[in-house]
Amino acid sequence: MAHDTTAKSDFSPHEEHAPAKTFVLWRPHAPTGLMDWLTTVDHKKIGFLYGFFALIFFLVGGVEALLIRTQLMFPNNTVLTAQQYNTMFTMHGTTMIFLAVMPLSAAFFNYIMPLQIGARDVAFPRLNAFSLWTFVAGAIILNIGWFLPVDRWGAPDGGWFGYAPLTSKTFIPKHSIDFWVMGLQLLGVASIAASLNFIVTIINLRAPGMTMMRLPVFVWMTLVTAFLIVLSFPAITIALVELMMDRNFGTNFFEVSGGGMPILWQHLFWVFGHPEVYILILPAMGIISEILPCFSRKPLYGYPIVVFSGACIGFLGFAVWSHHMFTTGMGAVATAAFSMATMCIAVPTGVKIFNWIGTLWGGHLKMSTPMMFALGFIWMFMLGGFSGVMHSAAPADAQQQDSYFVIAHFHYVLIGGSIFALLAGIHYWFPLIFGRKVSEFWGKLSFWVIFVGFNVTFFPMHFLGLNGMPRRTFTYDPNMGWNTANFIATMGSYVLGLGIFIYFATMVYTYFKGEKVGRDPWDGRTLEWSLPTPPPEYNFAVIPTVHARDAFWYEKHHQEEIAKEKAEHAKEDEAHGGIHMPFASIYPFVASFGLLILAIGATVFDSNWSPGIHIKLATVLVGGAVAVAGIYLWALEGNEGYHLHIEGDDHKSDAKKH
Amino acid sequence: MLLTSLLKKLFRLDVCAFLALGGGSLLRASDANWFVMDGHQSTIFTEGPVAASQTNLFFVTCWVTFVIFIIVGAVLAYATVKFKARSEADEHAEPPPQGHGNPLVELGLIAASVLALVIIAVPTLKAIWFTYDVPGADTKAKLEEMIAKKEVYEVNATGYQWWFKFEYPTEQATVPESGGKAPLATANELIIPAGQPVRINLRTIDVIHSFWIPKLAGKVDMIPNRANFLWLKADHPGYYWGQCAEYCGDSHAVMRFRVIALGPKDFNDWLDSQLQPARNVASKTAPKAQLAAWRKPESFRRNESGVTSKFDISPLDAWIAKQSPEGGEDPELIAKGKALFQSKTCVGCHAIRGHGAQGVTAPELTHVGARSTIAAGLLENNHEQLQRWIHNPGVVKPGNKMAKGYIDNKITLTEADEEALVAYLESLK
């Protein structure tokens, strides 16, 4: 492999082109080690880091959940104080949504999506690194309160929904809410930047012949999710800015004494919050739509309908936000409209389930662990969907809203749905990413323990809710008829925790000691399986040409034709100067680090005492300066890269390095 | 119109009630002591038309989704078993036909889903309008007329962190301090006439709360700067549990209340006694037997339940018993308590009509002795619990203003002071 570091980024040396003026302070070259991880622009390494951080926070959120369940094991329990309990449920929700499920989906978007469309990286590799590190900065800000005194700081305790005016300075004067506001703001920056990147990648970097209607469904769901993020996050960004202004600069958006309208917060929050639900579930649906065909050895049933129903869910997702507000007194007409719109969304969701069953029908089902999780997903998501339909009937929802029935519903959707699919995905793509195969025995054992634990935890909650137990309550009296169900739920949560432990212990073991596998262990259908395991940094030695929907399946059944085509394309590539790779860069990390300093300044320091305000201002300015400097240097170094040359024209042989 | 007549037929069939009957019997039959659904806040065993309509609708959704679940689940289970690869050889056999789907099947399934949703949508729309406002009160004028005619009873409920204030705009109580009249106000126990629609105007003084009495009506939020309301009717006299259902800060979990529905005569008697100023105790009455065993406030564990199971057996009777003076009243002790109520700054926040207390930020206590619970439905109203509450309200209800108001301000009460205050409050029937 020769590093031809003088090559410019343009692919056609024959064209007349004035070289761009660049200013390069330092080009990192570390092939391994910490500096490599901090400066990498490789979508696969960034995807791995997303997954790594997401799983850590998944465990943190899980511990918070177990503490919540322990407190509720008995009536009038005293494991946590009211204040600690409120912090736990706030941070459990925020962590699981923003720091576990979303980045875990982002890990798959990053790692898998470019491979599935036959691309060598995402469209903006350095922006991708910036998204990752900004996400980490946001996660730090959200959790920083755990390490500061509770009386004036503490972790956020206003609920993951942060309803004004409870979150205003009048009612929660400590900085805990500032952490929440600034943390979510940074996570929004990270998510929007990443989504724009994915959209441009999917639109522009598809391999020749990869038409939109040949995209794997996972890529389609990535695209829909990315659009949802780009369109919905601005709503919460505005809400958070308004709340921040209210808390710090004396505005009156939600401040009742100044004529503010707290209901405004709810509309802004749920205009974001409902699409957010689909941001969490659509990637899961995409993963399931990859796994089921692979293990049924059949194409996805009704591909166009699955794709259109995904897009349809995305559109309708913006029209149903007020079903989170059925009890806010919107009036009969608005309630009826949102009720009907919500029922409509059940149709495209149901269609997906029908098509997944259609995919199984007539197949040769191989019951590997990813398939077990995928089938578990269909069952659990179906139950969560049904309780969702129950909520759409607004008058029934008046009883269910903010009761344990709702908790049961969305955990069936988010654990039985999203988490099952993500665990299936980790299992499915593990051999591709690490070149090792997870033990089927331990995989299936973890599936059954998780499946049983999950249902024992959350099924009783339906009954708790119907029996009138409200959510977000740190204690309950023994005479309400809630004791048995709560005790069972807590026992279930311990089993669920054990299952998750077995799952991750198995993964860690496999990473170090698992059985090594070669290319295409599952008899895959999509392009990522055409690659060696783990894939080389340039992904494809020759960019594939796509002839059919399940591109790799087609390649496997038309080997001669494809081999000829690859050989020709390899020659063309070499004539263009080899494989173009982007330079690594430290500046995305620097820019994110600047944002972290800025956010620490804006949240940790008090402006009420004399040195505090100066330290605050100084930190904010320094952080802002670092961020601006990072972005500026990043722009000045230009989008240059180097070229790799690979010997041999057979795309299936590993690239030889020279 | 054909559609309208079809809809009307559907209404006449009353699918709703029919399905609800089935659903109700199913849940009632599954009463295997595992998930007993008849708790104090059950949404299944309802006692008023609003909650009943909401529950009936819930059963419609239950049945429709249950039928779909059985069908789809059966197909899914069949496909999983039927098409499973039985052996290694099976797994590596020639791949099955690579079919891409069938548009007619897809369209048929879409149509079937839409149809299933219509079954839910029709009763949903019906219930939205039924539960929204008192039947017949289509306009504001009509509603006011109904209130004036006493066909509908009107109450104002206001949420505070963490208790509820109830106001009766149609009942004027005398206020001896000012010599004038003001609408009757109480706290945490809402007394309503049974069998009569009650319209409750929902307000909040601070953050968002939600007003929920599961057996009578689903919740409606109390939101600042919004004039929300709900209506309900209790089918018969009874004692109902309610609770705040929107997270409202530290002590959200212990922001509870009660609704007591009374027959017409009892309700009027209650009103008459409430409209009076606070009671004065002139002479000593015969002592009560069990006064000797009085638990020290320090002996209560944090979060320890403040209600006994004895209370649950007949809560309405327990409430009725609280309406008349108890034995063992000591005028001297009560007078001492009354003085302490002034000197220990309780009057700054609480109101006791006729005793010179006119605070507005805390629960009104003119007839607190006649309530069955204190501290927003959290503790039974008796000697022990009253003293436990007064001793350190911050332990019972974290973050509440009473703890801030006097304990944080270093106002101290001796044990004798606490006993005097308890005796005074208990005398306020």
CATH top-level class of the largest domain in chain B: Mainly Alpha
* Count of discrete structural domains of chain B: 3
Largest sheet of chain B: 5 strands, mixed
Q: What is the helix tally of chain A?
A: 19
Low-pLDDT residue spans of chain A? 1-16, 649-658
Q: Evaluate the radius of gyration of chain A.
A: 25 Å
How is this structure best described in words?
The complex is a heterodimer of chains A (658) and B (429). Chain A has 658 residues and is mainly alpha-helical. Chain A has one domain: Up-down Bundle (Cytochrome C Oxidase, Chain A), CATH 1.20.210. Helix content of chain A is 64%, strand content 2%. Chain A is built from 19 helices and four strands. Chain A has helices spanning 33-39, 43-71, 82-116, 125-143, 176-204, 217-249, 262-296, 303-316, 332-344, 346-360, 369-392, 394-400, 404-434, 440-466, 483-513, 551-557, 559-575, 587-604, 610-636; strands spanning 436-437, 515-516, 579-582, 641-644. Chain A has a two-stranded antiparallel sheet. In chain A, strands 3-4 form a two-stranded antiparallel ribbon. In chain A, helix 6 packs parallel to helix 8 (303-316), helix 7 packs across helix 13 (404-434) and helix 14 (440-466) packs antiparallel against helix 15 (483-513). The longest helix of chain A is centred in the N-terminal third of the chain and has 35 residues, at 82-116. The N and C termini of chain A lie close together (4 Å). Chain B has 429 residues and is of the alpha+beta class. Chain B has three domains: 2-84 and 102-132, no CATH class; 135-276, Cupredoxins -  blue copper proteins (Immunoglobulin-like), CATH 2.60.40.420; 277-429, Cytochrome Bc1 Complex, Chain D, domain 2. In chain B, the strands form four sheets. Chain B has a five-stranded mixed beta sheet with strand order 3-2-1-5-8. A five-stranded mixed beta sheet of chain B has the order 4-10-9-6-7. In chain B, a hairpin with a 4-residue loop joins strand 11 (351-352) and strand 12. Mean pLDDT of chain B is 88; it is low at 11-16 and 28-34. Chains A and B meet through helix 3, helix 7, helix 9, helix 10 and helix 11 of A and helix 3, helix 5, strand 7 and strand 9 of B.
